[in-house]
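Supplementary notes for students who missed Thursday's class. We covered one full example, reproduced here. Read the sequence, then the structure, then the short commentary at the end.
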Amino acid sequence: MFADLNVPVPALTKQQLAQAASKKGKGKQEQNGSTPAFSPAQVTAIESRLDLLVHLGYTVIALNQIVERKVDPKIHVNTLDSLLGQLRKRPGLVFLKRLTIVLDEESEKGFGLTNGNSALFTPYDLLALVPTTAASFSLACLTHTQPTPLTTHIISLPLTLPRLPFNLKHTLVRAALKNGAVFEINYIGALGGEGDPSQSIPSGGEGGAGAKRNWWAAAREVARVTKGKGILVSGGVYNEADLRAPRDVANLITVLGVSQDVAHNASTKVAQSLVLRAQTRKTYRAVLSEPKVVIPSGSISIPSADVEMSDKQPLPSEPTSACKNNSQSGANGKKRPLDEGAKAETAALTTPSSASKEGAAAEGMSRKKKKKNKPSAN
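Structure (token representation):
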């Protein structure tokens, strides 16, 4: 399974967004379904990219909607739902919906990722953040990777900037990896193509040869700090000429100093575990299911309790008087005088009988005679 979890869709024009927002605000619902948000030319371009991705061997594709600065619930429109209705069905291909928020200095005050707006983020399968400041990077690593309904499992780094605007501290990186987040590397920057979300901000990344130089320097730093753990490789490609096969991408990542296994898992196992972990946003405290213990029948043998009473010895109906007296004395802590019957029984048990005395005396006489009859040693 090869996955490309960053297939960006073109941004809608202001006229299209205003039209969709006006219908959303008025609460109008058409009988024949929602109006297509994308033009036929845009849909055709997306279809051609998807055909090439399928030809290259990708089976899991995430359509990416990019939002700058913050998510405003008044004007935000989910454009991926209408796009999936316009795309042609392809057997064996899995489509995912992803939302990426580009954070800048204005986003530090709040970018809409709150519990009050959770209904806006529920339709998306993946949530990603692109921090461009030190404060937003710390916020993305420590706060928004906790297991909540608004967990962001992808931290996409702006690698085409002339210099990373923050230091990749080991404490922040380890905290994000421990919470299950991954750091995304888009290989479009290594090719010098357009498509990095950081280019949309005022101090965006460079293009061409400058973008390549910045990407290689920043990507090596990411591989060094993470030690190859939690690295996700995606495309972020708009043009078909910049698409690459999964094996070519793995060979490209090995140049960063990681092993071939890590480079191969960056687009296979890491993506698979990420998609599975992202489903926990819709559960309570990231619990996938409630475990139940199922015991197969016949595995545990229970001994039968039916025992014939004839095999058992009959129990005495009443205890003896001695036992009664002993129990009474033990209960009160004081010895009580024995009855006459009890005294007779104890005397019979302690004093030997006359017959036993006579037998003992006869045995003693016989032993004396044997000693006298023994010849004396000369």
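Commentary. The CA atoms of residues 97 and 125 lie 5 Å apart. The beta strands are 3-8, 60-68, 94-103, 126-131, 154-156, 182-186, 231-234. If anything here is unclear, bring it to office hours.
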